[in-house]
Amino acid sequence: MSDAATPAWVERLAREIGALGQAEGSGPERAMDRMSAAAARGVPGCSAALVVIWRGVRPGDEGGTGGELCAAGSHVVVDYGASHSDLATALERQYAVDQGPAVEAVREMRAVTVGDVLREERWPDYLSAAVQCGDRSSVTFPCQMEEEVVTFGVHSGRGDAFDVEAVAPLVALLAEHAAMALHSAGRYVDAAREAAHMRRAMSARAVIDQAKGILMHARGCGAAEAFEELRRVAQRNRIKVADVARRLVEENAEATVRAR
Questions:
Q1: Among 124, 40, 120, 55, which residue's Cα sits nearest to residue 88?
Q2: Domain at 5-191: CATH code
Q3: CA 169 to CA 152: how far, in whole Å?
Q4: What is the DSSP letter of 46?
Q5: Are 40 and 84 a contacting pair, CB within 8 Å?
Q6: Closest residue by Cα to residue 133 from 93, 80, 101, 76
Q7: In angstroms, rounded to a whole number, what is the distance separating the alpha carbons of residues 104 and 190?
Q8: Is the dihedral of CA 52, 57, 59, 65 positive or negative?
Q9: pLDDT, tens only, 52-106
Q10: pLDDT in tens, 38-47
Q11: What is the CATH code of the structural domain delimited by 194-259?
Q12: 164-219 vs 223-237: helix axis angle to the nearest 10?
């Protein structure tokens, strides 16, 4: 890698990755897809890139939850982004056999470099799949992200494609930026989810208040008695109070229209 190329790549990638966590609607999944594509385009020698979010699990809980993909070790794959489908296939093989550069990087929390898988002896159950998927050489770095770990790997279909001494520090920096951006993207998703929940709760409360008003007017009862009636109907029909209230409000509106 030439000294002239390095600053331009670092500046471009840092700017792009920083924007990922700030962009509206940029959740972790989209962010990782964009990161891996950017690395594949910009890192010298790189033909494909892989970004993985891992979460540690307690002994006995290796099955994971919520659709997480499970490695046989102490981490599960929460989500990942691969610039090419062959690299995604290679990752699937890694956690199926619990061997490979990404698995080793997250397990040992250190950089893992592969000069050429044809000379490798570390992962006998992974090597043939790596060759078939075109994963000949790679540099993978892990970075802690609160309760999760991000691994960032640059890969090539050629053996000895990377000047490891030059590329390794840059990939380490890229992994750090990726972790920060994904943390920001995750916070955005959490905030958006919470905001949506609050909007739904406020909407439900408004329609329940409307339904209570209808019952209070029709029956001459108080607010507590009106709500208790809504609750009894909901319980009897095994639906939410808000759904009962919404039906009552809609029926009342239709009856008003017919009466005009």
A1: 40
A2: 3.30.450.80
A3: 12
A4: -
A5: yes
A6: 93
A7: 30
A8: negative
A9: 988 886 544 444 433 344 444 478 888 888 999 999 999 988 988 889 999 999 9
A10: 888 888 899 9
A11: 1.10.10.10
A12: 120
Output the six-digit token pair for 94: 């890694």
Tokens coding 106: 């997250």
Please report, for the chain, the start and end positions of each structural domain, with discontinuous segments joined by +: 5-191, 194-259
Q: What phi and psi values does residue 154 have, to the nearest 5 degrees? A: -105, 135
Kindly give the pairing relationship between strand 69-70 and strand 112-114: unpaired
**Six-digit token string for 68:** 């997480």
Instruction: Retrieve residue 232's tokens.
Output: 């009894």
The neighbouring-strand residues paired with 70 are: 76
Rounded Cα distance between 37 and 51, Å, is 10
Instruction: State the Cα–Cα distance between residues 210 and 201, nearest whole angstrom.
Output: 14
Q: Is the pTM of this model over 0.85?
A: no
Structure tokens at 102: 């990404």
Which residues pair with residue 150 across a beta bridge?
53, 143
